[in-house]
Amino acid sequence: MKRIFLMILVWALIPIMALANGRHASTEISPGGLTYHLLMLPKAKQVSIRVAWPTDWPFRQGANQTVPFIGAQLVLSGGAKGYPAGKAIEKFADLKAGAFLQATIDHVYGWLGAPSENIDQTVAIANAHLRAPLLDDKWFRRISKGLKREFAQRNAVPAMKAYTAIRWAVFGDQPVREALSLDDPAAFDRASSADVARWAQETFTRSPDTIIVAGNISADAAGKAVDRLFEGLPVGGRKMQRDAKADFSPRRILLHLPGAKVSQLVFVAPLPPTANTSAADGFSDILLAMALGDGDQSVLFKAVRTKLRASYAFGAGLGAYDRAHRFLALSGQVATDRLAQAEGVVRTAYQGFLTTPPEDDLKARIAPVLAGLRANRSNPVKISANAMLAALDGEDPAIMLKLADVVGGLTTATIVSRLKSAFPRADGFVVLATSPDKNALPGACVISEPRGAARCR
After folding, report:
1. Rounded to 5 degrees, what are φ and ψ at 67?
2. Following CA atoms 374, 380, 382, 386 in sequence, which dihedral angle do they give, to the nearest 10 degrees?
3. Alpha-carbon separation of residue 118 from 98, 113, 219, 242, 342 (angstroms)
């Protein structure tokens, strides 16, 4: 439910959108020469600053893919000059502020949020940790062990094994697959604080892809805050090498899990990437996925309950491996003795959805989405998050101030048009089942561990 914006060309560094309630957007240059997008929200009680630093670490052969995840936690908690390890967390709490770093496949995202009167102090704390983190060994070990345990538990769940297997099918033995799954616990043991230091030094530079400032703050104050946040960071700006090939060719795979109590069935197929998805198209995708598999009135839920007379549910959702690879996923638990039948029921229901979309249901689903947008129109945290993703797609972050108008302008005709042009065909899915019965999906490529999916063609 993100990365969904309208393309508008920014011609000059002047306000590019102004609304009657005082909200407006502009593209600015800080006194230190950094370009940032300002979303002025007069009613907001907090200032939100977001930064997207580009990374290609997840695409490198031989790189330890646990390092960005450890580093994202360690940099802000492992201490800096004047701040013993863990002290920043207490300082942020005292300031009624918050901060985090998040490692993804394409970017490392940073966020700061604080009341307007405390934003300068919050920025100063963050800068100290970005510029010269101490990376305390005790905190390194604590974070590394915690993440190792967390991912081991997560990857042991049968439903997660299904998605791990799909990543093997789509990406094979590429570094990006390892970064998406983190399914090798020993990789956490091989990581070191020196690795994190190298990752941090190359990541946190004065050359981010995007900076967003949102809240009740003037351009002058915002520019000074941006400069303070980036003070002392290296210039950076090297070219990213993001080479990953995805194979979404349709195939049917069964992961045999003898100890599983139920079977899991997952369908995955590609959607247009974020850069080719406008605001109207993006919200159409959301509404279509909701009508397809969200709630007891959705197409898939009713089909599984009616045709199989089952007590379980089947749903649909949108996802992305990275910004170039979005996908539609249909998934649910099924009784093992009905796995093959369930595959047919889901595929038939999806084909019916493509052929005859439930237009009344689509229209009804617009209202709650619209209400949510209106309720958050002065929320700098949520608006800045979506503005960040818009800017990364080369779009105008100012559209975040008028998303309610975009959604309010959708019609069933435009939504159905999007369905016809962008959603996959019924025979275009990678189908992955997990089951205690290796014969539960006749004709499927049977594997005994997720990595085996790479050989199923």
Report:
1. -60, -50
2. 100
3. 11, 9, 16, 38, 55
Place of tokens 């195939």: 251
Domain ranges of the chain: 17-230, 251-455
Select from 104, 110, 249 the least CA-distant residue to 176: 104
List per-residue pLDDT tens for the chain, 457 residues long.
333 322 222 222 223 344 446 789 999 999 999 999 999 999 999 999 999 999 999 999 999 999 999 999 999 999 999 999 999 999 999 999 999 999 999 999 999 999 999 999 999 999 999 999 999 999 999 999 999 999 999 999 988 999 999 999 999 999 999 999 999 999 999 999 999 999 999 999 999 999 999 999 999 999 999 999 999 999 998 999 999 999 999 999 999 999 999 999 999 999 999 888 888 899 999 999 999 999 989 999 999 988 888 767 899 999 999 999 999 999 999 999 999 999 999 999 999 999 999 999 999 999 999 999 898 888 999 999 999 998 998 889 998 898 889 899 999 999 999 999 999 999 999 999 999 999 999 999 999 999 999 999 8
Give DSSP secondary structure letters for 218-231.
Answer: -HHHHHHHHHHHHT
Give yes or no on whether 17-230 and 251-455 have one common fold. Answer: yes
Query: Which is the CATH superfamily of the domain at 17-230?
Result: Metalloenzyme, LuxS/M16 peptidase-like (3.30.830.10)
CA-to-CA dists, residue 189 to 73, 142, 144, 185, angstroms:
16, 12, 8, 7
pTM, 2 dp: 0.91
CA 364 and chain centroid, separation: 27
The CATH label, of 3.30.830.10, 3.30.1330.60, 3.40.630.30, 3.30.980.10, for the domain at 251-455 is 3.30.830.10
